[in-house]
Amino acid sequence: MSPMIRRVEAVQATIDRFRDKPLKLGTDDCVRMAAFALRKQGVRASLLKAGSYSSEAGARRVMKRLGYETLAEAVDALGLPRIAPAMALPGDILTLPAADGSDLALAVAVGNGRVLGFWEAAGVCTVFQPLRYDAAWRSI
What we know:
Protein name: DUF6950 domain-containing protein
Domain DUF6950: 10-138
Pfam families: DUF6950
Oligomer: single chain
Order of helices and strands: HHHHEEEEEE
Organism: Brevundimonas viscosa
């Protein structure tokens, strides 16, 4: 199977699993979504190994327990190469500014500059066109 077909199938599986689900920290959130997309592409994603959480404070404690201050640091630790956000292919991981500006949110590139992510305006996980990207990583 070609890498692009693998990417597209992983993105479709991620859309099928997360689209239209409301944000529920620890179950349906940006970290779980990104880890799911990476696993579907054959990448070991250790983003979830430090335990469970059900609040933003709990998620921050889990990150600190792993030794990370930000989500970007956690993705960097996976060893994925950083790329320019404009170079993102389907299945690549991006960080976007969170609604409250306190940190970043993870999203999965779907193509044509669009991403799958938890968008505040929709209140659910959906495909949308972000106005700004902060960073991106090549998945495979």
